[in-house]
Design goal:
The structure holds two protein chains of two kinds.
Chain A: E1 4-7, E2 10-13, E3 19-25, E4 33-38, E5 45-49, E6 53-54, E7 62-67, E8 70-75, E9 84-90, E10 97-98, E11 102-106
Parallel strand pairs in A: 2-11
Antiparallel strand pairs in A: 1-3, 3-8, 4-5, 4-9, 5-6, 7-8, 9-10, 9-11
Chain B: E1 3-7, E2 11-12, E3 18-25, E4 34-41, E5 47-54, E6 59-61, E7 69-74, E8 79-84, E9 93-102, E10 107-112, E11 116-120
Parallel strand pairs in B: 2-11
Antiparallel strand pairs in B: 1-3, 3-8, 4-5, 4-9, 5-6, 7-8, 9-10, 9-11
The chains are: A mainly beta, B mainly beta.
């Protein structure tokens, strides 16, 4: 299985801060990486596909980059409604695998 | 409106079989590009991929669970199901059914059931 190593596991930042999450794959997955947002008690919501493609309706403060094995997810200006856990997920191989998640909190 | 709804017991005894069904409405499970997937999330943990039923009837079972796992479909009722045998406390989790929509160079989980907590306990 492809191991997805996501860091940090949690972070606390102030409103307006830039937040960066990294995700590293155990082998080359090309650009086949999605980012999801999961709010408490809710199902995951797709934010970014193909490593950097912002889904329709997702605010532009969210962005993704990277290829191969190293990927980054950024919130350019953290908002209170961004409180959630964020997951990376590879879709180059089956079984699909997810990072362990990054819980984002407001300081 | 497309909906996925999990159903099944919320409590299963150790060594017994966990059985869940996902009823899909608003889209056919035979819809091209659709991979009807089971995932689970242990309390406070990340997401684990269990397996899928494809739109063409093919199934995939995660090798980590393969000896205990059966995924099947019922096109007449637009449902797909999960059976996990010989359960232990480690199988306690929220179980989700979801659709992975997949094509040549894209794949994402776009539809989700609300999830159902299954507890393994005597």
């Amino acid at each position: 299985d492809i191991q997805m190593t996501q860091s940090p596991s949690s972070l606390s930042a102030s409103v307006g801060d830039r937040v960066t999450i990294t995700c590293q794959a155990s082998q080359d997955i090309n650009n086949y990486l999605n980012w999801y947002q999961q709010k408490p008690g809710k199902t995951p919501k797709l934010l970014i596909s193909d490593a950097s493609n912002l889904e329709t309706g997702v605010p532009s403060r969210f962005s993704g980059s990277g290829s191969g094995t190293d990927f980054t997810f950024t919130i350019s200006s953290l908002q209170p409604e961004d409180i959630a856990t964020y997951y990376c997920q590879q879709y180059d191989y089956v079984p699909r695998t997810f990072g362990q998640g990054t819980k984002v909190e407001i300081k | 409106q497309v909906q996925l709804q999990e159903s099944g017991p919320g409590l299963v005894k150790p060594s017994q079989t966990l059985s869940l069904t996902c009823t899909v409405s608003g889209v056919s499970i035979s819809s091209a590009g659709s991979y009807w997937t089971w995932l689970r999330q242990h309390p406070g943990k990340g997401l684990e991929y269990i397996g899928y039923l494809s739109y063409s009837g093919k199934t995939y079972h995660n090798p980590s669970l393969k000896s205990r796992l059966t995924i099947s479909g019922d096109t007449s009722n637009n449902q797909f199901s999960l059976k996990l045998s010989s359960v232990t406390a480690a199988d306690t989790a929220v179980y989700y059914c979801a659709r992975e929509f997949s094509g040549y160079n894209y794949a994402w989980f776009d539809l989700w059931g609300q999830g159902t907590l299954v507890t393994v306990s005597s």
